[in-house]
Amino acid sequence: MKPKFWFVIAGAAAVLALIVGLVTAFSTGSGPRGYVANNYTRAAHLDLSGDSDNRAYTSPLPPSTVAFQITSKWKPQSQYNDASGIYLRYSRDAVVIKPQAQGSVIHVMDVDHAYRRYHTHVGGVWGWTSAHGESFRGRGPGAGK
């Protein structure tokens, strides 16, 4: 066979691989926000008011099972559990899983909004969720000079 044939085959394979990669990347979403959106049922009526970035989802499974499923795919930077729910902190998003009559309600929101809303639960555990304290000069020897 001629070399030109192999170049055509290689080019077609590369284009096909690129298309498959793009479709996979954009259809599955990235991060915990995309994972939750693709694996749980959207429940817009449960969105929290005052936060346009918040998205609510439901699952028939208990909060501990939902948290296990999410953390198995996306390891959180911090996790806190109490009687009110399970709080997962990621770099940009927070996932809050609360018990509901039959299963769980899952809220995905910006991590700063989650910290402000749930600070009574996660305040001593999550700490600063962004660079808020980095302008403080009392970080130790040589810092802030």
Name a few traits of the molecule.
single chain; TATA-Binding Protein; alpha+beta; 4 helices; 6-stranded antiparallel sheet; 145 residues
Q: What's the quick description here?
A:
This protein is α+β, with helices and mostly antiparallel strands and 145 residues long. It contains 4 helices and 6 strands. It has a domain at 32-130: TATA-Binding Protein (2-Layer Sandwich).
Write a structural description.
43% of the residues lie in helices and 23% in strands. 23% of the residues are buried. Residues 129-137 have low confidence and may be disordered. It has a six-stranded antiparallel sheet with strand order 1-2-6-5-4-3, sandwiched between helices. The protein has a domain at 32-130: TATA-Binding Protein (2-Layer Sandwich), CATH 3.30.310. Strand 4 (85-89) and strand 5 form a beta hairpin. It has four helices and six strands; from the N terminus they run ααββαββββα.
CATH topology of the domain at 32-130, by name, is: TATA-Binding Protein
The strand count comes to 6
Query: Which percent range fits the helix content?
Result: 40-55%
Sheet with the most strands: spatial strand order: 1-2-6-5-4-3
Task: Determine the strand fraction and express it as a percent band.
Answer: 15-25%
Q: What Rg do the Cα atoms give?
A: 21 Å
Which structural class should the secondary elements be placed in? alpha+beta
Question: What's the main sheet like?
Answer: 6 strands, antiparallel
